[in-house]
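User: tokens in, sequence out, please.
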């Protein structure tokens, strides 16, 4: 039985994200993620301005006047949400944990997908595949996806994106839009990501708490690695330590983003102390602009 507080969270997320989807993201999503091609819909009588290349000569000859073929975009796509549920997702120094932000992002993307009649699937991973839900359509299916993300209790604390990507490559045969929602505190996934990106349209969403970027000046502070349990005591009163922490975190993120760019993987950075609306909207506009070139 799912606790009432989880069901309330699901309802809250549904209400808060539905408005965003209807007002902003649904149309942007449709313009950015195109269908697999055009499929024949019907024939109709030729009208001035129609492309003569679409004339159906067989029908025209039989009826005695020109008729053209009408095509519709073959819209149906598959969206896979790959969600990192390792222990680092339980970290948060703002009003939301990283895992809670991930759930809202999944809701926005999933509702945008079903509003465009696309399928949505879910892969929950740590350093193993914790749960897999095959792609399906419909609102009830999306609500189940959100419930799983909020309620799921992972068995393992660590992260192994390589395992998750290898599983994706084996299980999802059809080309899909794949959102990897993680903090990317993992290693040795580069080769698997390159393979997956050749088959699918991969978008990484990096969820970042501001304290993972910059330390406050609060004196001695004990830091614990949520995934390994290792602790370290540091003096945040030292400007040198704070600057080193900042530069190393920036360097690591820039290195990762450079790699993503080199293999054609789009990346979105989401800070937990800011709205995700602007970076997601910026991403959609960037993709749309790139498609028009």
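Assistant: Sequence out:
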């Amino acid at each position: 039985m799912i606790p009432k507080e989880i069901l309330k969270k699901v309802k809250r997320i549904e209400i808060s994200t539905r408005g965003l989807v209807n007002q902003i993201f649904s149309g942007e999503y449709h313009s950015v993620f195109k269908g697999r091609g055009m499929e024949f819909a019907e024939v109709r009588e030729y009208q001035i301005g129609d492309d003569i290349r679409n004339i159906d000569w067989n029908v025209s000859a039989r009826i005695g006047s020109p008729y053209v073929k009408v095509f519709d975009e073959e819209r149906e796509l598959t969206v896979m949400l790959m969600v990192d549920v390792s222990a680092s997702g339980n970290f948060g120094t703002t009003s939301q944990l990283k895992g809670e932000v991930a759930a809202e992002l999944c809701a926005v993307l999933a509702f945008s997908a079903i509003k465009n009649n696309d399928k949505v699937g879910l892969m929950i991973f740590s350093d193993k595949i914790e749960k897999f839900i095959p792609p399906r359509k419909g609102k009830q299916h999306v609500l189940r996806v959100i419930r799983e993300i909020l309620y799921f209790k992972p068995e393992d604390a660590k992260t192994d994106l390589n395992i998750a990507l290898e599983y994706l490559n084996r299980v999802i045969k059809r080309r899909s839009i794949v959102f990897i929602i993680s903090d990317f505190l993992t290693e040795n996934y580069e080769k698997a990501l390159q393979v997956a990106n050749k088959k699918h349209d991969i978008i990484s969403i990096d969820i970042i708490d501001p304290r993972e970027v910059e330390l406050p000046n609060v004196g001695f502070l004990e830091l614990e690695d949520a995934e390994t349990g290792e602790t370290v005591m540091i003096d945040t009163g030292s400007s040198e330590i704070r600057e080193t922490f900042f530069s190393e975190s920036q360097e690591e993120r820039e290195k990762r983003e450079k790699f993503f760019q080199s293999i054609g993987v789009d990346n979105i950075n989401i800070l937990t102390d800011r709205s995700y609306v602007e970076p997601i909207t910026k991403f959609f506009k960037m993709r749309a602009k790139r498609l028009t070139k």
